[in-house]
Design a protein that fits this description.
This protein is α/β, with parallel strands linked by helices. It is 53% helix and 10% strand. A six-stranded parallel β-sheet has the order 3-2-4-1-5-6, with helices on both faces.
Length: 311
């Protein structure tokens, strides 16, 4: 293996990448750098299905933030660069493992000058939505950045607001960022992905949802929602929290919540696969339902050694 190429292991939620990443890191005297927009928070390990690091494989960017903190791709780029440098300084192999495609894309391609959140501007937009409806923001985006507007559903307020925020801060269309990502990577990396059949992945998601409830996710959600200061808007978007809030309010049964959480997680997994298909040099590894993490890690290491590096 070329030590200059950083191995990255990706895949949809439920694909088993966390366990495989641990095995791969263990066999290469490495450490895991978590690439996940939600396990970066501490205080909700069950909701986020956060990995439990073994004593011999250190995990970075895992549970480093309080629930009220905010985090974004720009911060991940800086933090990931720092972690990669520290691991290599001690002759280790950094394994970037996770399912947040945007974070990995930004680390690979760069992000120029990251556009920070503008909470005052977001409050203005929310007031407009409350008064006039979500369609008014989408219409504005269509007038200012037709390409990005075409990509987004009018009710996808989070991304519509972010696109308008970027335009306001930079004077440039948000869609131009995607054109910049068409260029070469800023780092040398090898991206490998774990791919399961949809039937297998859906079954794993159902089982994991059941395990969440057995592990006390309802009580965890109660603590998250009661935390002071309150959780950030990003932390509140973690899958399942909205349904569990309804359970705690008595407007949804646990059985109904389980079904809805599993359904939303399945949809999220498909969306992740769509994002990862946009990675130009991603090598997919098909995983059988009965494959264990050690065997899959061996395949990951073999494919990484065969394919060499990308630049």
């Amino acid at each position: 293996m070329d030590a200059a190429a950083v191995p990255c292991l990706v895949g949809p939620t439920g694909s088993g990448k966390s366990d495989v990443g641990v095995e791969a890191a263990r066999q290469t005297h490495g450490q895991v750098i978590c690439c996940d927009a939600y396990t970066v928070y501490r205080g909700m390990p069950v909701l986020t299905a956060a990995p439990t690091p073994p004593s011999d494989v250190r995990h970075r960017l895992l549970g480093i933030l309080d629930l009220y903190d905010t985090y974004d791709a720009g911060r991940f780029l800086v933090d990931c660069d720092h972690a990669v440098g520290e691991i290599r300084a001690h002759a280790g192999t950094p394994w970037i493992v996770g399912g947040t495609a945007l974070y990995l894309r930004c680390w690979l391609k760069g992000f120029g000058s990251p556009v920070p959140r503008d909470d005052a501007f977001r409050a203005e937009l929310k007031a407009r939505v409350d008064a006039e409806g979500a369609h008014v923001l989408h219409a504005e985006l269509k007038a200012r950045d037709p390409h990005r507007a075409e990509e987004l559903h009018p009710h996808d307020l989070r991304r519509v607001v972010r696109a308008l925020e970027i335009i306001r801060a930079t004077g440039k269309r948000a869609s131009l960022q995607r054109l910049e990502w068409a260029g070469p990577d800023r780092v040398r990396a090898r991206v490998l992905g774990l791919r399961r059949s949809w039937a297998d992945l859906d079954a794993r998601i159902e089982a994991r949802t059941q395990l969440m409830f057995e592990a006390g996710v309802v009580e965890e959600a109660r603590e998250v929602l009661a935390s002071k200061p309150p959780p950030s808007p990003q932390a509140r978007k973690v899958l399942g929290l909205a349904e569990l809030k309804q359970v705690l309010a008595g407007t949804l049964t646990e059985a109904e919540a389980k079904a809805r959480i599993a359904q939303r997680t399945r949809r999220y997994a498909r969306k992740q696969m769509t994002f990862f298909r946009g990675f130009e040099a991603l090598t997919w590894i098909d995983v059988a339902p009965d494959a264990d993490a050690a065997a899959v890690a061996a395949e990951v290491l073999a494919r990484y050694a065969e394919t060499g590096t990308s630049s």
